[in-house]
Design brief:
Chain lengths: 608, 124
């Protein structure tokens, strides 16, 4: 309540008190000096004025103003009013006075101030009764006539107590309310300041997608001021488009997505058109808000301009891509020259030089692998892995991959078995189709088998495909040394190598499993690992299974492959041991084969 | 004795491949860019061309296109070698009539030699 208003009301209340006091004093003076002047009419008039003033005062000002500030004026007014009413009653017939009803009102009004006041007024009244009865000579009829009146007085007292209780309760409640609302508005102010001060754009929408809040950063980003944006559909203000400059379709709507998934979602591939028509790339995170009955109640969106970050990211990708291409050229030259030097048809070297060059050759191949994987990882991190998705017969792909790796397994005297349907040993392969890029998928399978062979010194590798209507699961198990429990969670991280004597001697870039995970996840699958030290390792991945209709649709949409594609060489990884009469057979990377191999299930050829 | 035209702009790789092919007793002639490759191909009539895709001036794809539309070379075997591992690039090579498409990062020197042998064997 503003101070000015409070002050004015205080003055008014005091004036009222003074006026009614003056009136009361005047009546008192007249009564004392010349009681005969105080006629029935004038007393009635004075009582009426006082009653009105009192009523107005109690009903309005006292309720509006804070009680403490007016305690004194109220006390004065009450005393004077009481004296006045007592005089009026005494002048007009004591207990039989019609103004006695005013007194009853005064008793009830006393309740507003507290029990002491009520009891005091009530006590005074009873004393007055006793005095009246005694002064009337204790007539039984007189007492009988006024018993009802006494009863009413007592009821008024009880009523006053009730009023008192009520008003105190209300006062406590209202104080609590005032405190609470004070705290709340302070919190609101704080929250408001925080929201406005956040550097990211903040937008709050309700369930009908109408904007409820747009902070300063958001206003600057999208060019709309809050006043004109409020209650507009958020789409008008954000004008989201995909990175391919397509309008975001309802099924891709980030807010719908957040509500559907019941969690915060993030997008960094959206483009926003500002009010001025400028296009900026934004990073958007949407958190859904739900009502008590779990209905979408609204959402909070945070967004920021990531145009620059994206440009930097792109530059970085291009740099890594160019750099690894550039670095491959000298690597290829070194590798080539080493091959030439080790080839007895081209050069003559002694046995020791042959051995050293063989090691150099291995090392340079590892370097080549690193560049290759680095390039793939850069691609993977940029999210380009899911390009060229088609319906892949994964059972046939596995057959091809195991056939190709057979050679490597045999070199280490390991068995490599491909099983369909787990232990049941059924020979008929169900048609397991998944949506994936066959080259990428093959990369994963080859990688897993290659790893299993690398880390197994005796026993064998088993590739198992299983599936139900929803998923296809592929497992690659080995009888290797197993992996310690503490390493398991880290295996799919970049450059994570289990530190053991085995891994130090076995090659690998530390990127294979990371890439495998990225690839499998790009096709909505998951990959996990089960291993115990001494009991071998099984890595499994699962992918959503396609229905026959999906397959037919995807194959119809796919471009027919023309030309005379052949499978490229799949030279197994087997460093140093020359296996060909025409020179050392250098290790090569297990590589993707053209997809027609997978679709037609034709046998994989090795170029030899 | 089969005659191979090696088209490669990198001088080291040119030397490596020529030495390796020579070790297989092939007659090797080289070209370091697309123009030279076309001129040499028409003049020398090689049995097989090992063609790099990424070259200055005329790209390997364009060279292949011209070779296939030139009467003297339209049936010459062509092995393409590229750093481009994109499927669309492979398809482009195949639609232009390449006999074999090798991705450099995925093959070794011996693989290339094997591919050459295979193509020449198929030609007989």
């Amino acid at each position: 309540m503003p101070d000015q208003r409070s002050r004015n009301l205080t003055i008014l209340a005091r004036a009222q008190a003074v006026i009614s006091g003056l009136v009361a004093v005047a009546i008192f003076a007249i009564y004392g000096a010349q009681p005969s002047l105080l006629t029935q009419t004038s007393t009635s008039f004075a009582a009426a004025i006082l009653g009105v003033i009192g009523a107005v005062y109690f009903l309005t000002l006292h309720q509006i103003l804070s009680r403490t500030r007016l305690a004194m004026s109220t006390l004065i007014l009450s005393i004077i009013t009481s004296i006045n009413v007592i005089l009026v009653i005494a002048a007009t017939g004591g207990l039989d006075s019609p103004y006695y009803s005013l007194w009853l009102l005064a008793i009830v009004a006393a309740g507003t101030f507290g029990s002491v006041e009520t009891l005091g007024v009530l006590g005074l009244t009873i004393v007055y009764y006793a005095f009246s009865i005694i002064s009337e000579g204790m007539h039984a009829p007189y007492i009988r006539d006024h018993l009802v009146q006494l009863g009413i007085t007592l009821i008024a007292g009880a009523l006053a107590e009730w009023v008192h209780g009520r008003s105190r309760k209300a006062a406590t409640a209202s104080t609590r309310l005032e405190t609470l609302s004070g705290q709340l508005s302070a919190e609101q102010l704080k929250a408001e300041a925080v929201i406005q001060g956040i550097g990211e754009g903040v937008m709050v929408i309700d369930a009908n997608r109408k904007i409820q809040l747009l902070n300063k950063a958001a206003q600057e980003l999208c060019g709309w001021d809050e006043a004109s944006a409020l209650s507009l559909d958020y789409n008008l203000v954000l004008q989201l488009k995909t990175s391919e400059d397509q309008v975001v379709t309802p099924d891709k709507d980030p807010f719908d997505e957040a509500w559907k998934k019941d969690k915060s979602i993030m997008h960094d591939d959206l483009i926003m058109t500002t009010r001025a028509g400028r296009k900026i790339q934004i990073g958007l995170s949407v958190s859904p808000i739900f009502n008590a009955d779990h209905q979408p109640g609204g959402a909070i969106a945070l967004f920021r301009d990531i145009t620059k970050e994206k440009a930097v990211e792109r530059e970085k990708e291009e740099f890594v891509s160019t750099a690894s291409h550039e670095m491959r050229t000298p690597v290829a030259a070194i590798e080539g020259y080493l091959s030439l030097a080790m080839n007895p048809n081209v050069a003559t070297i002694d046995e020791r030089a042959q051995k050293y060059l063989g090691k150099a050759h291995e090392a340079i191949q590892h370097l080549g692998d690193l560049f290759r994987d680095l390039l793939s990882v850069t691609k993977a991190d940029a999210g380009n892995l899911s390009d060229h998705t088609e319906a892949v017969n994964i059972a046939a792909l596995l057959q091809g991959a195991t056939d190709d790796m057979q050679f490597v397994a045999q070199k280490k005297s390991l068995t490599l078995v491909y099983q369909i349907g787990g232990q049941s040993g059924k020979a008929i392969a169900p048609l397991y189709f998944v949506a994936a890029n066959p080259e990428r998928l093959r990369e994963v399978v080859m990688n897993l088998i290659d790893n299993a062979i690398k880390f197994t010194s005796e026993g064998g590798i088993k590739v198992v495909i299983e599936g139900d209507e929803k998923e296809v699961t592929v497992g690659v198990s080995d009888t290797g040394p197993g992996i310690a429990q503490e390493d398991l969670p880290h295996l799919f991280q970049k450059f994570y190598r289990v530190d053991s004597s085995a891994t130090r001697t076995i090659g690998g870039t530390g990127l294979g499993l990371y890439l495998s995970r990225k690839i499998i996840e790009a096709f909505s699958g998951r990959i996990w690992i089960d291993s115990k030290v001494g009991q071998g390792t099984t890595i499994r991945f699962s992918l959503p299974r396609l229905t026959e209709d999906d397959v037919a649709r995807m194959q119809a949409a796919a471009k027919p492959v023309t030309g005379t594609t052949q499978g490229t060489t799949n030279t197994p990884v087997e460093p140093s041991a020359p296996s060909q009469p025409d020179g050392p057979r250098p290790a090569a990377i297990p590589m993707p084969v053209p997809e027609d191999h997978l679709v037609s299930q034709s046998a994989q050829r090795r170029v030899q | 004795m089969a005659k191979i035209l090696l088209v490669e702009d990198d001088v080291n790789l040119r030397e490596i491949y020529s030495a390796r092919f020579s070790a297989e007793s092939y007659e090797v002639i080289t070209a370091s860019d697309g123009e030279e490759a076309l001129a040499t191909a028409v003049r020398e009539r090689p049995d097989l061309i090992v063609l790099d895709v990424m070259m200055p001036k005329i790209s390997g794809f364009d060279v292949l296109d011209i070779l296939r539309s030139t009467p003297e070379t339209k049936d010459t075997k062509v092995i393409m070698m590229t750093a481009l591992s994109q499927d669309t690039d492979r398809q482009r090579g195949e639609s232009l009539g390449v006999n074999k498409y090798l991705i450099k990062s995925q093959v070794t020197l011996e693989d290339v030699v094997n591919a050459v042998k295979e193509q020449l064997a198929a030609a007989k």
